[in-house]
Amino acid sequence: QLQLVESGGGLVQPGGSLRLSCATSGFRFDYYTIGWFRQAPGKEREGVSCISRSDSGANYADSVKGRFTISRDNVKNTVYLTINSLKPEDTAIYYCAAALFRQCRFPLGEFDYWGQGTQVTVSS
To answer: What is the C-alpha separation between 53 and 17, in angstroms, rounded?
Structure first.
């Protein structure tokens, strides 16, 4: 069974940093492009980052460039999203998703498998 499980969210003060993890199982992790998405209250789901089969394939939405960093560990079958200089506007549920043999491009297309999300709340 293909599974993705997000973790690492929580309540963080503005200006802080956070690292989200997406642990996967049940498939050849290195065959898949992994995307991170977020959905803020009252807003549509937004693709924020993706990573292909190598770190050089990473890409980001304009809204998060310079603050978000995506990486993957093909041994641990885990993708990370490091967020720096957190802002209240970053508050959202963050999801990771997988797509087989998908190019890492924006706008992000359809992804096949999804995690259940992890809540990030940025507040003082």
So the answer is: 25
